[in-house]
């Protein structure tokens, strides 16, 4: 790990001012992903801004009837919140499907949305990786790709987003709230927050340099049967091969978002119109244009079958 300087911010505005004054700085809260990346020298910040003391660790009801979740709310606390379990159970289920209890006790809402891919070539600094070193190439294309993307990929990158929480937030149409270095704030729809790789896979979100997530807002509850189904290589502490977050209403209509198959939580609203016709019809629209490799072509059928299982449970 390379040497760095450190400070504790006292307010969000102070945090972003410190980031603006220190190019190459990083915010740190739970550090559950960042510290691993620093040890491997994939991330090499010269300055860390500790944001744990900013008071952004509460969950509040919004005037519209939704919830505002502070960026520093720990994953364990968010999953256990009575309002989340009652009205946004897909989110609670998704969080509990991720990581381990110890990690969930440290990981934060904002940090979860920013965790980086688990593509093995991203973590192997002896291999080319456009996400780690732009322009160096993509070892995953033509390499070991079983875990990687099948839709929204590019010639530069086929990595996937690892977050379970983000898939649930996508199906709930959450909104990410931020403060920028000039102290202005903005709201970013979760649908626009994560980017597809294109030819700049190292740019993973809509955040500008030094911009800081302050909270995530959930809209008023939409009811329905809310489920999260995660298919992985072992029963716990593994990233999704495929996951499905769903909100299904009594008449068979609903919403679905899929994880483990793209550079961002994957949702195609037009495909949701086919949900009453069954999993096969909805999956065809969801995966239109998919370009799997020979190693991960099984994910196409796995998405359909996982969605079918979810729809069966929703009807029961």
From TrEMBL:
Pfam families: FAD_binding_5. Gene3D superfamilies: 3.30.465.10, CO dehydrogenase flavoprotein, C-terminal domain, Uridine Diphospho-n-acetylenolpyruvylglucosamine Reductase, domain 2. InterPro entries: CO_DH_flav_C, CO_DH_flav_C_dom_sf, Diverse_Substr_Oxidored, FAD-bd_PCMH, FAD-bd_PCMH-like_sf, FAD-bd_PCMH_sub1, FAD-bd_PCMH_sub2, Mopterin_DH_FAD-bd. The keyword Flavoprotein applies. Keywords: FAD, Flavoprotein. SMART domains: CO_deh_flav_C. This is Xanthine dehydrogenase family protein subunit M.
């Amino acid at each position: 790990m390379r040497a760095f300087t450190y400070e504790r911010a006292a307010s969000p505005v102070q945090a972003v001012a410190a980031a603006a004054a220190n190019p190459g700085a990083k915010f740190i809260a739970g550090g559950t992903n960042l510290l691993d990346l620093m040890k491997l020298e994939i991330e090499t910040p010269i300055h860390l801004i500790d944001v744990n003391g900013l008071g952004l660790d509460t969950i509040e009801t919004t005037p519209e009837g939704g919830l505002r979740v502070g960026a520093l709310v720990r994953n364990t606390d968010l999953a256990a919140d009575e309002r989340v379990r009652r009205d946004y159970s897909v989110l609670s289920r998704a969080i509990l499907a991720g990581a381990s209890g110890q990690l969930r006790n440290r990981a934060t809402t904002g940090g979860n949305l920013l965790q980086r891919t688990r593509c093995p070539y991203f973590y192997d600094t002896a291999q080319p990786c456009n996400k780690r070193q732009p322009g160096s190439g993509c070892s995953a294309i033509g390499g070991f790709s079983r875990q990687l993307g099948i839709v929204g990929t590019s010639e530069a990158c086929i990595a996937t987003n690892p977050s379970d929480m983000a898939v649930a937030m996508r199906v709930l149409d959450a909104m990410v709230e931020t403060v920028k270095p000039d102290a202005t704030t903005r709201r970013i729809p979760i649908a626009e927050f994560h980017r597809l790789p294109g030819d700049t896979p190292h740019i993973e979100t809509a955040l500008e340099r030094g911009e800081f997530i302050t909270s995530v807002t959930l809209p008023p509850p939409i009811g329905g049967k809310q489920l999260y189904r995660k298919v992985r290589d072992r029963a716990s502490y593994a990233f999704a091969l495929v996951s499905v977050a769903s909100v299904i209403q009594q008449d068979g209509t609903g919403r679905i978002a899929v994880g483990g198959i793209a550079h961002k939580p994957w949702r195609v609203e037009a495909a949701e119109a086919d949900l009453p016709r069954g999993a096969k019809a909805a999956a065809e629209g969801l995966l239109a244009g998919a370009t799997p490799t020979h190693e991960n072509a099984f994910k196409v059928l796995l998405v359909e079958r996982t969605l079918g299982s979810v729809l069966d449970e929703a009807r029961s």
